Amino acid sequence: MAGHLARAGHDVAVWNRTEEKARRWATEHGGRAAQSPEAAARGAAVVFACSGDDDALRDVATAAFAGMSPGSVFVDHTTVSAEVSRELAAEARGRALEFVDAPVSGGEEGARRGTLTVMAGGSAAAFHRVEPLLACYAGRAAHFGDSGAGQLAKMVNQICITGLLEALAEGLRFAERAGLDARAVVELIAHGAAGSWQMSHRAASMLERRFDFGFAVDWMRKDLRIALAEARRNGAQLPITAQVAERYRALQARGDGRLDTSSLIALLD
C-alpha cells in the first residue's frame, strides 16, 4: 500500500516493527525508513497505519500522534474493535488531529494489485481529504458514518466471508464424497446463484488442499472475536459465525493458524 503511494508521487516515510523491512521498502520504492512511528509521522499531512490488534494499534497510534501536526489526519487500516477506534478518535481530537478508521478487504493480493476495498468511519470531511490517497491502492472506498462505523462494516464483511467459506467447504467435500467431478460442478454453479468471490478464487485451491497463502486463520479468528463481542453488545444473533469461529479455533489447535482461511475444508477430511 505504501508502495502504491510512493509510485503515485507522494513523499512517503515508513516505519515497521522489523527495522529491516522498512529499510528494504525504502530501497525498493525510494522512500524513507524512519526509526519510530513518531519520526515517520513528523511533518506528514496524512499518516497511515496497519497493525495487528487493539493493543498494537494503541501503541503505534499514540506514538504517531506525538509527531503529528495539528490538522493532519491519521488513517487506520487495521481491523480492530469499534471501541478502540472511538477511543483513539477522541484522543486525536484532543490533539487537534483527525482520525479515520478505515479497515480494508482484499488481502495481500488486493494490496499488491491496488484493488482493496476500504470501509471508513470518522468525519466526512476527513474521509474526503484522504479519499484521493486511498484511490492509490483501493478500487472502492466508502464512508459509513462516525468513528467506529468503518470497523462495524468490516465486521459485516468478515461475517459474510466466513459463512461463505464454511458453506463452500461443505459443498466441495459433499461433491467429493458423492463421486462427482467437483471442479466441473464448481465451473458450472459459479455462474449461477451459488457463485461468489470465494468460489471463484478459492474452490480450486481448496480441492487441492493448498492453503499456504492468503489471509491467515489466526487473523480471521481475531476478527470474529471482535464481531462476536460487538454482537453481544448490540443484540445481533450470529449462530453460524460462532460455529465457524469454533472451527477456526480447532484449526489453530492443530497448529494450522497460519494457513489461509479456506483451510476449513481440511476439518471435513
Structure description:
This protein has 269 residues and is mostly helical. It has twelve helices and eight strands. Strands 3-4-5 form a three-stranded parallel beta sheet, with helices on both faces. The protein has a three-stranded mixed beta sheet with strand order 6-7-8. Helix 11 packs antiparallel against helix 12.
Secondary structure: elements and pairs:
Blueprint: H1 2-7, E1 13-14, H2 19-29, E2 32-33, H3 37-41, E3 46-49, H4 54-67, E4 73-76, H5 82-94, E5 98-101, E6 104-105, H6 107-113, E7 116-120, H7 124-134, E8 138-143, H8 149-177, H9 182-189, H10 197-207, H11 217-234, H12 239-253
Parallel strand pairs: 1-2, 3-4, 4-5, 7-8
Antiparallel strand pairs: 6-7
Question: What brief labels describe this structure?
Answer:
8 strands; Rossmann fold; mainly alpha; 269 residues; N-(1-d-carboxylethyl)-l-norvaline Dehydrogenase, domain 2; three-stranded mixed beta sheet; three-stranded parallel beta sheet; 12 helices
